[in-house]
Design a protein that fits this description.
The complex is a heterotrimer of chains A (about 260), B (about 775) and C (about 160). In chain A, about 35% of the residues lie in helices and about 25% in strands. Chain A is α+β, with helices and mostly antiparallel strands. In chain B, strand 9 and strand 10 form a beta hairpin. In chain B, the strands form seven sheets. Chain B has a seven-stranded mixed beta sheet with strand order 3-5-1-12-9-10-11, sandwiched between helices. In chain B, helix 15 packs across helix 16. By secondary structure, chain B is of the alpha+beta class. Classes of the chains: A alpha+beta (about 260), B alpha+beta (about 775), C alpha+beta (about 160). The interface between B and C is large, with 57 and 57 residues.
Chain lengths: ~260, ~775, ~160
């Protein structure tokens, strides 16, 4: 790891202004991605601003038909939240499928989505449930948030403060994990609400994406068979040791169908 | 509590491990130690135009930076085996690159600094100017006409070796009704002991002596190789300590260049020099295992009698020869191709090939998993092609239990075994008869269920030194032990068999306690320090109890013999009238006796003692050289369910029956089998060490890419043992450490191919490969 | 830049000066010389470094030492008392849940967090929980048995 200046922010304002002053700072949330990245010397921030003391970024609230989750809420807290489990069981299931217990004890929703790993689970929840991302300065709609591999709509220094998930009528997440990393080779979040149907796919491409054809089919008839015959193009999908683009494309259909079945 | 031979005694070593008091190499902090980091090649094949260390040397905390130029007077890393003594191309392997790098991870420079992090900072500042050469990564590329050569040789060939009667084998094929042919890849593995390698080199100018702490399975072998062949340090000036070692699996057998570098540098900088690998570095620089491409043909009669077996294998040696690299795909492989069958004619040819990849050496099983995989795959496939039940086909070809000793057509002579008994019991355990019903039930849930067998035999207990010499080993393969009885009757046992998970401290103590009739608690086993232990060839090839344990037994015999002399004097009887039993020396036919502790005391306080005939003391050493290998055998049956939509395989049942001869501690034996199966399952389903074919970059260079089995990848196992004692060692033991790794890959691939109804799926049978195989089968 | 870290380590208040980049596991091992916590990988996969921080299991190779300022940290060394093994440690010994011992401290610390969350875990739940702990020796069979037995011993 390269050496850096470490400080703990005392408020969101303090965090953002410290970041602005530094010009080359990284926020440290749970650290489950940032610390490994630093260990491999793949990043060299001059300053690391720890958000651990920001109580205002922690916690889960249900209000106005949405579940709002503070950015510093850990995956374990989401997975274990009776409130989440009751309102959006698919989200609790997804949180429980992230990493391992130790990662879930430290990793946070804000850190995960700000990192925008193409194989992370939370992007599927954000897009698949049509969430709204709150930052220190604005709100960003789910469909606008993830812009490319490891890239988001966040401006430099902009800090995610919370994510609010509208409660769907039904939803489910199905994940085909990478056997080694246990990130998603393909993860599909399917939801249906008054705003329509969403099918969001993580792991398969450079960033999370929606499958319009499946959404239309499910809007007409929300049954597993509706998506069984719909496949995404393999072109442009990810390729690694564990899965070819063609296999990923196939898994999108299988996982989507299973998610619809699980959503009931 | 029974603590004798055969008892499931809990382990002596566990207390320290469970309380965090193990002492692994990286736990050691020597006074004044500095930290080394190696600059490793980032390209697979290049001439080095320059290695500029100026900037690095000026970095904070840097003590020294060394390159190949600094080590020109130092010998290269030696190889310990040439098949049949040669001919073999054996290019030099410098400790730090001399003008050329040959794989990604090859060591270019060594940076020593006050802290490891400072050494890493400075290592980045070493400027290496690579003149890149085309890399030959696959064996196919390495053997292509006009391929770039990795060494100063005509081509990339290391050796061409053969075993068995080619003419007789051709004749067998000529009269065959049926020939089953398979093309198989035995995938490259990274052993991945959870403890990364580490080493500390230290020089003591007061005594002109060196100490190396290292994560080795065989410290004496390291002392011999490094002292005699590399650094020119005589044994009495070189101490090698392997403290607690966090797993080996073969990857901690070889002598590594890092060991040499820290030992040499410790003197240069006048401070202990410590290096600990990061996992990513382990992937690059630990020896890898397997990596064969094989064509196998089995000739049979129409009713399934095996007539002949023909095997041609290309074996990847990597860029350099590791210590036992050339042994693994030759004598630990071709000699096992009879398996448990009476195949009368066998011919195996192996080409060893250099490539721009990390050196390949032993990995749990070493050669024997490769042999078993091809044999049990071809047998299972023959059964399917001939329409004969796989159990029945095996039964028809088994070596009968009354045929031992059995001479195979590939040199080795099996000592004992009862393969039919093992198979029958395994089939019963696995409820083979009920399989068809389970398959139907699975089908109703949309799952494809399959069952696969693997019989196996392995040659363990390495090795008779005279045979080892004939086949090309450059060392003896005996083992040494010292049994030191202390004045009050407690015992320290010094063994050359290093323990890194196998539980020797417990098992060996059981043997000693049992033989001497003294409490288990009164015996301590010492291993891993060349200054304490007379000699040792180390731990590998399931040899510890069969060879190391036998050496201890031999020393115990001497202790008892001397004890009888002392007892005869004390009891005023003839030596030949003394019996030793349950810790008592007794005059036969009388009630006169004396306890072992009293005899020990009088050996050290020899007031009433036959001093004119007998030395005081009770401390005996022994060397044991086995007269033959041992031949454990067994049958593993794996049952899987495949999800046809995703290709995911779930192991639903694992049943195994193994014959390890006599068993000293069944709890430890079971644990060894479990661990072995996990390695085999890993190879067959999950693990794949992959290089980019063009660049030679390691694609599976971290645990996020390379998949070693987790708890939820495996089931609980049902295992049993049968017992045909080994007739030629004092304990009747055969060895158990590698069995699971040998049997599991074939059992699992046989099960998967049975489930999905295809001829073959290459390892690792990942979900995508299984799915693709199903797709193409459905397309046909 | 060095920073002062103060924490409660195995029940004792301790302080040390560290760099921002110092990992918790480095502080525990190199500074406080508690070497029972091990490092087996560099990608937060193997779990040999698992300790408890504020009552939860964490991978100390993926926590900065400065993040543990003010925290309660406990390591494998805290479990046995007066030479008496903790029931979970005893269960590992009784069930041969360890071989080389390298992954063991992390396994035990992870297992204790499981039992804190789920006092009576099934075999499947144990296997699932161990996603973050790799063992290369045991094939997990006896680790799973050990944790089930340890959980039972802790319940009674």
């Amino acid at each position: 790891m390269y050496e850096f200046n470490y400080r703990r922010a005392s408020s969101v304002f303090d965090a953002v202004s410290s970041s602005d002053q530094s010009g080359d700072a990284s926020y440290l949330a749970g650290g489950m991605t940032l610390i490994p990245v630093l260990k491999f010397r793949l990043a060299a921030p001059s300053d690391v601003i720890d958000l651990a003391d920001l109580g205002e970024l922690k916690g889960i609230r249900t209000e106005n038909g949405a579940v709002a989750i503070g950015a510093m809420t850990t995956h374990a807290e989401v997975a274990g939240s009776a409130e989440v489990r009751q309102a959006i069981p698919a989200l609790a299931d997804l949180a429980e499928s992230i990493g391992d217990p130790q990662v879930r004890n430290r990793g946070t929703i804000g850190g995960s989505i700000a990192n925008a790993d193409p194989a992370a689970d939370y992007p599927a929840a954000v897009v698949g449930l049509g969430a709204t991302v709150h930052t220190n300065s604005r709100t960003i709609g789910a469909d606008d948030f993830f812009t490319a591999m490891f890239e988001t709509a966040l401006e430099p220094g902009e800090l995610v403060t919370a994510v609010s998930f509208p409660v769907p009528d039904r939803a489910a997440y199905m994940k085909f994990p990478n056997p080694a990393s246990r990130y998603a080779i393909v993860g599909v979040m399917v939801s249906q609400s008054g705003d329509g149907v969403r099918v969001a796919v993580t792991g398969a491409g450079g960033r999370v994406f929606r499958v319009a054809e499946m959404e239309q089919a499910l809007a007409a008839n929300f049954v597993p068979e509706a998506v069984a015959g719909i496949s995404v193009s393999a072109e442009g999908l990810n390729e690694d040791l564990h899965a070819s683009p063609e296999y990923r494309a196939h898994l999108v259909t299988v996982m989507a169908r299973r998610a619809v079945a699980a959503a009931g | 509590m029974d603590t004798g031979i055969g008892a499931a005694v809990t382990r002596k070593e566990d207390f320290r491990f469970l309380t965090g008091q193990g002492n692994y190499t990286d736990d050691i902090a020597r006074p004044g130690q500095a930290h080394a980091v190696f600059v490793r090649s980032v390209v697979a094949h290049a001439n080095l135009r320059a290695v500029n260390t100026e900037a690095a040397s000026a970095m904070p905390g840097v003590v020294a930076v060394f390159t190949g130029d600094d080590l020109q007077g130092v010998g290269g890393v030696p190889c310990g085996f040439a098949p049949d003594g040669g001919p073999m191309n054996e290019p030099p392997r410098p400790v730090l690159a001399q003008g050329k790098v040959r794989f990604v991870g090859d060591m270019v420079a060594m940076v020593i600094a006050e802290t490891a992090e400072q050494a890493r900072d400075a290592a980045e500042a070493v400027d290496v100017d690579y003149d890149e050469l085309p890399a030959v990564v696959s064996m196919e590329a390495a053997q292509a006409e006009g391929a770039p050569t990795i060494h100063d040789l005509d081509d990339n060939s290391c050796f061409s070796w053969g075993i068995g009667d080619a003419e007789a084998t051709d004749a067998a094929f000529a009269k065959a009704d049926h020939v089953t042919t398979l093309e198989l890849v035995n995938n490259r593995k990274c052993p991945n002991a959870i403890e990364p390698r580490a080493a500390i080199g230290e020089y003591d100018p007061a005594h002109d002596s060196y100490t190396l702490y290292t994560t080795s399975q065989n410290p004496h072998v390291i002392r011999l190789l490094m002292g005699a062949f590399v650094l020119g340090i005589p044994e009495h000036k070189l101490r090698v300590v392997s403290p607690d070692v966090g797993g080996g699996f073969g990857s901690k057998i070889p002598h590594y260049p890092e060991e040499i570098a820290v030992t040499w540098a410790g003197k240069q900088v006048g401070r202990p020099v410590k290096w600990t690998a990061e996992r990513t570095e382990s992937f690059l620089s630990d020896t890898h295992g397997r990596d064969h491409i094989t064509r196998v043909e089995l000739a049979c009669t129409s009713d399934g009698e095996f007539l002949g077996l023909r095997v041609h294998t290309q074996a990847n040696m990597g860029a350099y020869l590791s210590t036992f690299g050339p042994l693994i795909p030759t004598y630990l492989y071709g000699t096992l191709l009879a398996g448990v069958y009476t195949t009368p004619a066998i011919r195996c040819e192996v080409d060893g090939v250099f490539t721009n990849t990390a050196p390949v050496d032993a990995e749990r099983g070493a050669g024997r998993p490769e042999a078993t995989f091809l044999l049990e795959r071809v047998v299972e496939t023959a059964a399917r092609e001939l329409g004969i039940d796989p159990v029945e086909l095996r039964r028809r070809n088994f070596i009968a239990s009354d045929a031992f000793p059995y001479q195979t057509p590939v040199i080795v002579q099996y000592d004992s075994g009862n393969y039919e008994q093992v198979l029958d019991r395994a089939a019963e355990l696995a409820d083979y008869a009920g399989f068809a019903q389970r398959r139907e039930e699975a089908k109703s849930r949309g799952r494809l269920r399959g069952l696969g067998f693997a019989g196996y035999i392995e040659a363990c207990g390495m090795a008779p030194s005279n045979i080892a010499g004939v086949i090309g080993a450059r060392a003896g393969l005996f083992e040494a032990a010292q049994v030191r009885v202390h004045p009050t009757g407690s015992v320290s046992v010094y063994t050359g068999s290093h323990s890194h998970g196998q539980g020797h401290e417990t098992t060996f103590a059981q043997v000693v306690s049992d033989r001497l009739g003294i409490p288990f608690e009164n015996v301590d086993v010492v291993h891993g320090d060349t200054d304490q232990i007379p000699f040792g060839m180390g731990t590998y090839g399931s040899r510890s109890l069969a060879v190391g344990g036998s050496a201890i037994c031999k020393a115990l015999d001497k202790i008892i013999a001397k004890g009888k002399k002392i007892a005869a004097h004390a009891l005023e009887a003839g030596e030949s009238d003394i019996d030793f039993e349950s810790g008592e020396f007794r005059v036969r036919g009388t009630d006169k006796s004396v306890g072992f502790g009293d005899i020990a005391l009088s050996a050290y306080v020899p007031h009433n003692y036959p001093l004119e005939e007998l030395e005081p003391g009770l401390d005996e050493g022994a060397f044991y050289d086995p007269t033959n290998f041992t031949f454990p055998a067994g049958c593993h049956i794996c049952e899987v369910e495949v999800d046809p939509e995703t290709g995911t395989t779930q192991i639903v049942n694992w049943n195994a029956v193994d014959d390890f001869g006599k068993i000293v501690n069944p709890m430890i034996v079971d644990g060894q089998v479990h661990g072995g199966i996990a390695h085999g399952v890993g190879q067959a389903m999950l693990e794949n060490c992959a290089y980019d074919e063009d660049s030679g970059q390691l694609l599976s260079g971290s645990l996020t890419d390379y998949c070693i089995p987790r708890a939820d990848d495996l089931p609980s196992f049902h295992i049993e043992t049968t017992e045909t004692p080994c007739p030629h060692n004092p304990l009747g033991v055969k060895g158990c450490g590698e069995a699971g790794a040998i049997a599991a890959p074939a059992a699992l691939i046989n099960a998967i191919t049975d489930a999905i109804g295809v001829a073959h799926v290459d390892m690792p049978a990942t979900p995508e490969k299984v799915w693709a195989a199903l797709q193409s089968a459905q397309g046909e | 830049m060095t920073l002062m870290v103060t924490m409660t380590l195995n029940g004792e208040s301790v302080s040390a000066e560290v760099e921002g980049r110092t990992l918790l596991v480095q502080l525990i091992r190199d500074h406080f010389r508690l070497t029972g916590t091990h490092v087996g990988c560099d990608t937060s996969q193997c779990g040999a470094c698992v300790v408890h921080m504020n009552g939860q299991s964490v991978k100390s190779c993926t926590v900065l030492a400065v993040q543990a300022d003010g925290a309660q940290v406990s390591t494998i060394e805290s479990l046995a008392e007066n030479g008496e093994l903790h029931p979970m440690q005893q269960a590992f010994k009784d069930n041969h849940g360890l071989q080389c011992g390298f992954c063991t401290p992390g396994m035990v610390m992870s297992a204790l967090d499981l039992v804190a969350n789920n006092p009576d875990p099934s075999e499947a739940e144990i296997r699932d929980w161990l996603e973050g702990n790799l063992c290369r020796c045991t094939g997990y069979h006896n680790i799973v048995k050990s944790i089930a037995a340890g959980a039972q011993a802790m319940r009674s």
